Amino acid sequence: MLFGQASDSVYTNAERMPYFPGCTAYKIGTDDRRACSNQSVKAFIFNHIIYPQVAKDENIEGAVYVRFIVDEMGYVQQPKLLKDIGGGCGEAAISVLKNMPKWEPAYHRGKPVKVALDLPIHFYFKESNIPNNQAYVLVWGKMNNYEVSRKDLRRNLNESLTVFDEAGSAMTVSDLRFSYAKNSKLIQKGSSGRITSDMEKMVKKLKKGGLFSIVATVQKAGKFIEVAKEYKVIK
Question: What is the model's pTM?
Fold first, then answer.
C-alpha cells in the first residue's frame, strides 16, 4: 500500500491496518494476526460469492480487482471496481463487499482512521480450474494496493517479501520472478528466492502505465506452488 494520507482523510496506509473479524486469538501487530485476517477475508469471499450464470455460460474466469474503504467504525464503504472481467462478475464482487461484516478499524497515531484497501476476487466455476495457490498470500511490505506509483515500488524494495500458506505459516520462497509488461513488451528478472540487485535495477527503471507482477514459488508436500501478485503502475 502507498504510504501516507490520501485525500478527504482516507489513508492508503496507517500505522495499524484494519483486521477482518475472527482473529482475536492472535496478538495485534503480529504476523499471525495479519495472516489470519488475510485468510479470513478470502474464506468469507469464497463462502459468499455468487458466480453469475452469464459468466458461466460465456466461460469467463479470472480476477476482479476492487477497492473499498474501511471507516473509523470498521464498516465497509464506497466499494468500487478497479478491474472487471465481465459477465456480471464485477457486480457480484461489489455485492460481496456490501455484505461484509464489520472490521476492526485501522489506527494511526492512536486514533481510528479511514483506510482504502484493494482486493482481488477470483472467479473459477470449474473445480478442476481452481488454482491450488488461492489459499496462499504473498505479502511484500506495505504494497497491498493494486494501483501503485513508481516511487512506492522503489521505496518498498527494502521491505521483506513473504508467502503465507493456508494456515498462516510463512513459507520459504525457492524461486522469485519480477515481470513488467507494457505495450506488448515484457521484461523479466528472477532469482532463487530473494530480491537481487538486478531486480532492484529493473524496478527503478519502470515506467508508468504498465503492469508489474511478482511470482513467488514455494514448495509444500513435494509440490511446487506459484503465488502471484499484480500491480498497475499509475505514475
Answer: 0.61
